[in-house]
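User: Can you fold this complex?
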Amino acid sequence: MAAERIQHSCALFGIAGHESAAYLTYLGLYALQHRGQESAGIVTSDGERTHIHKALGLVNDVFQPHLLEKLTGSSAIGHTRYSTTGSLTLLNTQPIRVSYRAGTLSIAHNGNLTNTPYLRSRMEQEGSIFQTTMDTEIILHLTARSHKTALEDRIVEALEQVKGAYSLLLLSEEALVAVRDPSGFRPLCLGEYEGAPMIASESCAFDILGGEYLRDIRAGEMLIIRNGNMESLTLPISGSETPCVFEFVYFSRPDSRIYGEKVDKVRRRLGKHLAREHPAEADIVISVPDSSNTATLGYARESGIRFEIGLIRNHYVGRTFIQPGQERRDHDVRVKFNPVEGVLKDKRVVVVDDSIVRGTTSRKLIGMIRDAGAAQVHVRITCPPVAWPCYYGVDIPTSEELIASHKNVEEIREYIGADSLGYLSLEGMLSAVGVDRAMCHACYSGEYPVPPDDKLGKQVLEE
Amino acid sequence: MAAERIQHSCALFGIAGHESAAYLTYLGLYALQHRGQESAGIVTSDGERTHIHKALGLVNDVFQPHLLEKLTGSSAIGHTRYSTTGSLTLLNTQPIRVSYRAGTLSIAHNGNLTNTPYLRSRMEQEGSIFQTTMDTEIILHLTARSHKTALEDRIVEALEQVKGAYSLLLLSEEALVAVRDPSGFRPLCLGEYEGAPMIASESCAFDILGGEYLRDIRAGEMLIIRNGNMESLTLPISGSETPCVFEFVYFSRPDSRIYGEKVDKVRRRLGKHLAREHPAEADIVISVPDSSNTATLGYARESGIRFEIGLIRNHYVGRTFIQPGQERRDHDVRVKFNPVEGVLKDKRVVVVDDSIVRGTTSRKLIGMIRDAGAAQVHVRITCPPVAWPCYYGVDIPTSEELIASHKNVEEIREYIGADSLGYLSLEGMLSAVGVDRAMCHACYSGEYPVPPDDKLGKQVLEE
Amino acid sequence: MAAERIQHSCALFGIAGHESAAYLTYLGLYALQHRGQESAGIVTSDGERTHIHKALGLVNDVFQPHLLEKLTGSSAIGHTRYSTTGSLTLLNTQPIRVSYRAGTLSIAHNGNLTNTPYLRSRMEQEGSIFQTTMDTEIILHLTARSHKTALEDRIVEALEQVKGAYSLLLLSEEALVAVRDPSGFRPLCLGEYEGAPMIASESCAFDILGGEYLRDIRAGEMLIIRNGNMESLTLPISGSETPCVFEFVYFSRPDSRIYGEKVDKVRRRLGKHLAREHPAEADIVISVPDSSNTATLGYARESGIRFEIGLIRNHYVGRTFIQPGQERRDHDVRVKFNPVEGVLKDKRVVVVDDSIVRGTTSRKLIGMIRDAGAAQVHVRITCPPVAWPCYYGVDIPTSEELIASHKNVEEIREYIGADSLGYLSLEGMLSAVGVDRAMCHACYSGEYPVPPDDKLGKQVLEE
Amino acid sequence: MAAERIQHSCALFGIAGHESAAYLTYLGLYALQHRGQESAGIVTSDGERTHIHKALGLVNDVFQPHLLEKLTGSSAIGHTRYSTTGSLTLLNTQPIRVSYRAGTLSIAHNGNLTNTPYLRSRMEQEGSIFQTTMDTEIILHLTARSHKTALEDRIVEALEQVKGAYSLLLLSEEALVAVRDPSGFRPLCLGEYEGAPMIASESCAFDILGGEYLRDIRAGEMLIIRNGNMESLTLPISGSETPCVFEFVYFSRPDSRIYGEKVDKVRRRLGKHLAREHPAEADIVISVPDSSNTATLGYARESGIRFEIGLIRNHYVGRTFIQPGQERRDHDVRVKFNPVEGVLKDKRVVVVDDSIVRGTTSRKLIGMIRDAGAAQVHVRITCPPVAWPCYYGVDIPTSEELIASHKNVEEIREYIGADSLGYLSLEGMLSAVGVDRAMCHACYSGEYPVPPDDKLGKQVLEE
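Assistant: Here's the predicted assembly.
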């Protein structure tokens, strides 16, 4: 149940040189809604002025026709955000737009910086003020302080000072800039629609427009789109590419390409490798819908066990489901998933899922599957146990909450009540993804490609 | 694309003798949200007084904790409703509660009466007033006019005068009554939770509570639950059972039982029969998610063609998606579905769907599948062409809008751009459902089990 | 402080034969907002169909431009309502529109029937159902049951059966009908705007349009406006005119005419009579704004004591003022009124008010005036003590809450902390109003012109 | 009609050392709502952390009980704001809170800086970024950049660099600071409630709590409240006191003290001087309620002409009054004011008002008074013609819109349709206010005490 608590921090979409820039960005954010549901925002530029609208809520709620109409101009960047409850304020929504020496600059950021405390402290010593709790604000400060003339040079100067994960879109009156950090932690790709270049976190945002995917933005690449021209630079910052493997396992939509790969294909291979590493004597294999569907197909194909739809997901579940304190039952899980008794009854069942976080949801789900008559329940996870925090933009629960940080596989199996439990090995996972590249797997292995300076950010602003 | 326009009219849920009656009804309606998204309402009885809350919106939006708390009492009935735009007013939400000689009476109705114009006219001649445009109000009038003493006798007297489709829940201060019309057009079943009897349109509402399915309410059966006792009567109204077959094809959730059958099993058989009647030379078979998923598995199994996930559905699409007039593209379909290129590329694809209504959505979808590289697209529909209106509670577009009412199969195939198109035959469909019972298939065949008195209801109230 | 709890039940406005009927009704309701702030509604007729919109809230909130535009047609009736908290539901908003034999009929009602329990019980015995808790629904039932052909005849037959207070506007597809009960309890007057006849509770609604006041609707008169013609009938119901005197004292706006009299003039005379009956040795006389302003001018003129503005009213106070439980201070009064120290300091002050209901507000207000430095505070009330409930449409607190029902004048004076307290006598009040007519003064005298059948209505519906 | 367009920019309220700090600030803002209706905000400090809530809307709408409860701590500052439509965004609401070297700093500002373009440009050259369009942000930047240790020293260093009008409240974790600029353009006063010091724009905010007014904050004074101690400093900035005279004429509530004077007394003297300068042969004198009420009493007293209530104001008028394009009538004025015919009929009327801005409202109002039967209408304004923009925090329309900037008195009289028109002279106004002090009267005279560096601020951020 990645859905238990692992949450992403955002989606990016940008387009330059199209008269319907705001509307197309709205559509693009729609396709990327799965990456962040707490807020949405768009900034446009008409060449002379920039226009912004952002608010808490789903893309669907934030943008009304009359609001989209005000966002004039042929360039736009947009953002959707997930944020932890504490800082769920409008001030922390993105894009952030500021005014500085050269006009306005707007920024949308996916990822997390790892030297935030140091930078923030240094800048505060120099007299800077911060109005948000987002590390993104730091990049704006650094860009504004640069004495370089060209926007891209100022941005480069700023990025030379930060460390960590950043896929960025920046918009000024005259240019749209896309950047991916040298490690390429978070995805970012380039597409085209009716001749206009587009940048998005995942390629499914291009498809919603009927646009075309061109290529991945390279790790360490900066694209500058200005006056209809697009220029590509390489950031003068050393670093080797280690994109986040978890994007393949859970976050990205299966119809997307990320890192140049089709997520669907990778996820299917994860299922196949999982079947090889952890076969099962079983009658059927089912998915925990919808994020595990494709991997489950892979498991079924490799193992020869019959693929079935054994759990129905209720897509009407909203954020405000009422769970009265006195009702200690498993309604929270039942309201989301319902087992199909006719499928499960008397069957030995393999359940393929993409993660176990705290274990409580898995436990309830397995209980429901058993109640529906399953003879055996064999749980197979398409990745290794998640046991380490992420410093690069994924919101993973604290170690105390992560079941894998204090229980071994057998203990987890016992806790969730499965007949057997198999996690895909780190090697298996990486092999399934493709052998030709290094990836960040710190949440599984604790091996951090970019060491965080300090694990706890200074946080003085709150609601 | 049943999603194109065929809409249901409502869901029912009731429970008697449980201290958390309102909360459990709220959960039950949650599970039944797919049957109606326009409004939701609950009435409870504490034995002396009844309490009501209803409003436009999803179950999730209509009920807040403080509102649920006001709905005290151990008996409750609830309703969710789909309604056509014109009459989308709070006055037309259900349950309707009225005061009459014997106290209050509340009613929740799934179905449509067929002698409404006659009855309404007769009652208006006698001086009755109507405050809603719902035929349900007629049942309340008739019940109140009855000179019988017992509630059930009054209801029987009322129902002897109406014709058509009615699955009903009624709640007074002292009793909960459930009724299904002698034709049994719409489903209704009985369950139990912690000793308290429950009634619901589909059994998935019992599962959400962790309750138990007991049996179908029989066509023509009336259940009276009073003081902890449950009595079953048979309505003294002639009629032979002809439940709606479309419930199996499209409306009901696959994890439900209706008419005593598991929807999942039936839908799988629909897919198998379809594969036999309309085989295809193809590489893969895909579903239009989510309603066709199970039937697609059946088609795959029977045909031996590989099941694949070739379309991704975006579940964040809300009602207010902005579609600017000037943008004539297929964004409305793209925002909902995205083809998985890696799956479809160069493949001969069978697409299994549960209906073609106007044909425009199918046409766009097939175009998208071709754009994703499919070599061939073979469309298979799990039922015959829908060509006739429904008078028993399903909102089907007018004949002019129904593509099958003015085009034959070959013309439809050409319009939607498929390489081949196969509809399951009426016989195949009925055989898949199970041979032991008659069913209503009027929307396919034009054979109406209960002839409507008059096809156009008098409608003088509007917003 | 009439503001303490005496509340009106509604305002009426209607217009026939003007193409902007809905918009003009909206304006008219705006002017009458002081008579009811809980809900607002308008029904229009375009000659063939009627259109309705109503909701909880101020006129300003309920009607948006796009909603007004839907209310097509050249005839309209509108209503604003105050209602006690318990029944504050949309179902109880007005106008109520029903469908019956002859089409639709909509009704807006100011007043209260006094034989509701009898009528409702009789009609329920005959099989009627009630969907609201408003006695107004009874009039619709009775009208629909009439076997007469003409709308006006049916209404007359209905009204022959009811007793009590009713100023009514009714709208069908083809006619607008205005009626005032034979006692003429509640006001209703006739005006004209650009050739179109208007009916309103108070004439200030005509002024807002720039229209003209023509005359009072007579007690027992029925006006039928149809096809551009206006006919006047006299109800064949005996009764002598006894309009509510409290309308003059408190409810109506001073710029209105009611009962053919200018409220402003009457209220000034109330102040003068009060000065004669209860003179005071004082330096200044101040008003409790705004309802007592005019009477205070009368008191000042008659007594020769200087008129001053000694209390400032905060008009931004809304319904949801937060008053924490632990704060037992007088913030609820202070947030509304602030004494002007420079005016009050060391002065002997006469405070003119229009009523004392529970006494708590007066007590706090007098405390504040003393704290501002007043040497003496002499309270003068422009009517006798309110000690009896009203059965004709004014919401007066129960006897237990009415200070005058259990304390004499000296005890009240002591409770509120005034140096002296003088109520205008019944004779003085009636004389001020004008000697030529009987009026209802039951809330002061307990003499009820139309005896209520039963003081407690049967109320089985609640939220 | 100052109400036509002259708008204030804000109100301030602060309190230190009271356990109900947030609630008392809420009450204080309630009393000051007349100074700004677009947004409201409160920041509290509990000694270790600060807490903020702010939103668009009236105080009443912005603060709900559960939101107030979160604002813990014994110190608080609050703000209400009027803002022109263009910049009506949440980002521009106050207080602004930022994080900087020493923790957090929050600021609430009434007034406008006059060297904003210079400062902003200088700071942007140095690399600063601005997230709002408010000059207030500059003060925060300057304070954060100061190398001084003590908060008050940093603030002083910041203020030494700014020019113009600023009444300020600042809140850190450990101190509350109140400052008034050396010119004392905007009011600010000190009070006490239950031993806790309070600061407010006007003293009526103290009265709502039952607190005590102590004294004016002096022009150029800074108060530091820390650990229960209050220290007063004088800003080391030269400047002579010139408080805004318009506060007396229009903005402040009559029950307030500002600049140590009771507004009520001053306004009465304005009326008296006006009567002496511009007597009239008339029967009655009326006010345009409510802002001119007190001055009208002064005019009446001095002239001996009878004071009457000739216009009734509708206090239910909200922001969203619908004025259809095709309706070119005077409904916008009629919906707000209604003439009392009985008072005006055949009378020679003096109308006292506090300003004529564009003249259109006055023209309609005078037309209405004539329609009500007034024989003559003599308009008297309690100040000179407003003909110049304000650079110190009052939002006055542009010169093109100001009728007095392009018409002389006789032309204005003719335009508005008055029989005579008299403006109080500058000398008369200043004399009425009190001879012992210089005041800013730039909007009347064009004499600006602090010359603005540049009349047009750079504004690059917009919605």
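Residues 315 and 336 of chain C are 7 Å apart (CA to CA). The mean pLDDT of chain C is 90.
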